[in-house]
C-alpha cells in the first residue's frame, strides 16, 4: 500500500514538473481611452493561470504587457485571442524570449 | 410707484415642459454616451461580456468633448426649464406640467449631471481605483 502511495506521489510530482511557468511580452494596440489598458488586463486575467507582471504604456495608443502563465494550461495564441476578442489588436512582442 | 405681487407656481407651461423633457432626454443620452467610451465597457468586461464592440465603444473617447458639449447644453436647458420660476398667471389656461413631473425631471437631470461629472473625472480617478 505504501509503495502504491509513493508511486502515485511520484507520478503527480512528475506531472507538476512538466507544467512550466512561462513569461511573454504582449504588444497591444488600440488603447485609446483611460480604461482601455484595464479592460485588456481584465480580459487577460480571465485566461487560466495568466498573471500580469507589468504594463508599459506606449506613446501612440499602445502598450506592452509582461505576462506570466503556465504553459501547460494555456499558450500565447489563446492569450492573444482573449485580447482580440474584446476588440483590441495584440501580437507577441519581438522582445519576448520564451 | 405700484408694487405688483407676482404669484409663482411650481407648474410650468406645457411648451416649456415639453422642451424641458426633450432636454432631459438629451442630457441623459449625453451622459450615457459619455460613459460608453470608458466606464460602460469596463463594467461589461468585468461582468464577463466579450466582443469586438467593446474596443469599438472605447474608440468613442476621441469624441468625448463633442458628447460633453451636447450633454452640457441639454442639461443646461433642462435645468433652466426645471427650475425657472413661473408666474401663476402663465398657467391660468391650465396647460401646465404637474409639479410631480417637474420633480421627476429634476431627479433625472441631477442623476445625468452626476454621471457626466463622473465620466469627466474618470481619467484622473482610474489609476487610483483600478489595478492590473
What's the short version?
Chain A has 98 residues and is α+β, with helices and mostly antiparallel strands. In chain A, 37% of the residues lie in helices and 30% in strands.
Walk me through what this model shows.
The complex is a heterodimer of chains A (98) and B (132). Chain A has 98 residues and is of the alpha+beta class. Chain A has helices at residues 2-18, 36-45, 76-84, and strands at 21-29, 51-57, 62-70, 89-92. Chain A is 37% helix and 30% strand. A 4-stranded antiparallel β-sheet of chain A has the order 2-3-1-4, with helices on one face. Chain A is globular. The relative contact order of chain A is 0.25. Chain B is elongated. Chain B is mainly α. Chain B has helices at 14-36, 39-46, 53-58, 64-83, 99-129; strands spanning 8-9, 12-13, 86-87, 96-97.
Element layout with pairings:
The complex is a heterodimer of chains A (98) and B (132).
Chain A lengths: L1 H17 L2 E9 L6 H10 L5 E7 L4 E9 L5 H9 L4 E4 L6
Chain B lengths: L7 E2 L2 E2 H23 L2 H8 L6 H6 L5 H20 L2 E2 L8 E2 L1 H31 L3
Helix pairs in contact in B: 1-4, 1-5, 4-5
Amino acid at each position: 500500500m505504501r509503495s502504491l502511495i509513493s508511486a502515485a506521489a511520484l507520478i503527480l510530482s512528475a506531472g507538476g514538473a512538466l507544467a512550466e511557468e512561462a513569461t511573454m511580452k504582449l504588444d497591444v494596440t488600440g488603447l485609446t481611452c483611460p480604461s482601455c489598458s484595464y479592460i485588456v488586463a481584465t480580459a487577460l486575467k480571465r485566461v487560466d493561470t495568466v498573471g500580469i507582471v507589468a504594463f508599459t504604456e506606449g506613446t501612440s495608443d499602445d502598450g506592452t504587457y509582461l505576462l506570466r502563465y503556465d504553459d501547460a494550461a494555456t499558450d500565447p495564441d489563446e492569450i492573444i485571442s482573449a485580447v482580440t476578442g474584446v476588440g483590441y489588436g495584440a501580437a507577441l512582442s519581438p522582445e519576448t524570449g520564451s | 410707484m405700484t408694487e405688483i405681487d407676482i404669484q409663482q407656481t411650481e407648474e410650468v407651461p406645457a411648451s416649456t415642459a415639453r422642451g424641458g423633457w426633450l432636454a432631459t432626454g438629451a442630457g441623459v443620452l449625453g451622459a450615457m454616451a459619455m460613459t460608453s467610451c470608458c466606464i460602460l465597457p469596463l463594467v461589461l468586461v468585468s461582468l464577463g461580456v466579450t466582443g469586438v464592440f467593446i474596443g469599438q465603444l472605447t474608440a468613442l473617447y476621441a469624441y468625448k468633448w463633442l458628447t460633453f458639449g451636447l450633454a452640457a447644453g441639454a442639461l443646461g436647458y433642462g435645468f433652466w426649464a426645471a427650475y425657472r420660476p413661473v408666474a401663476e398667471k402663465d398657467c391660468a389656461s391650465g396647460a401646465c406640467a404637474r409639479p410631480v413631473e417637474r420633480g421627476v425631471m429634476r431627479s433625472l437631470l441631477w442623476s445625468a449631471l452626476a454621471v457626466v461629472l463622473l465620466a469627466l473625472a474618470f481619467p484622473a480617478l482610474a489609476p487610483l481605483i483600478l489595478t492590473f
